[in-house]
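HUMAN: Please help interpret these tokens:
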Amino acid sequence: MTVPIRVLVCDDQMLIRTGLVTIIDAQPDLEVAGQCGDGRAAVELAGRLRPDVVVMDIRMPVLDGLEATRLLAGAGVEHPVKVLVVTTFNLDEYVYEALRGGASGFLLKDAPPDRLLHGIRTVASGAALLDPEVTRQLVGRYAARIRPAAGGAPQDVPLTPRELEVLRLIADGLSNGEIAAALVISQETVKTFVSRILSKLGLRDRVQAVVYAYRHGLVT
């Protein structure tokens, strides 16, 4: 038997939290390790339970999901936890802050259950963590807010021309399959390029790669 993915659910609305717990627990490969209704409790429970993934709401009492995400997965955290942030369209101004705070990805609250489950499994595996359409709609919309890092310029990026090309396509929201079609290469080759990019830049996942590309002026 494969060890199930352990999930901590954090949402201050009991009805939504109960629904999430029910959906997750019904899956043979997933297991709800715990649940809570505020960010402070999420940080404390995550430290004690060590879940594989935290499903995190943004607007909550005591400590909001953005700050809780920084404490769980942000820069300098010794044992970061993978965080999947859930949000709604009228809260999308927080999405970039969630990603910058260390979130491994996000979903919209009106997403169907199968997308939630896919998101949890994807985040847990460390694979592609952003839905391409969501990347285009949200990360792209807030690109103007992302200032290039000090001294950061495209020529300073330690990537080959081909790797830069792949990074730009990731930042444009293309999936591995779409990148493979655009560059006329195999998906396995794309995966190899993605792995090299993350390794060279010291990034954890595709989310961070998207933010990196915007901050270094590689996309406009």
Notes: The domain at 5-140 is CATH 3.40.50.2300 (Rossmann fold). The CA atoms of residues 49 and 57 lie 18 Å apart. The longest helix spans residues 187-201. The mean pLDDT is 83.
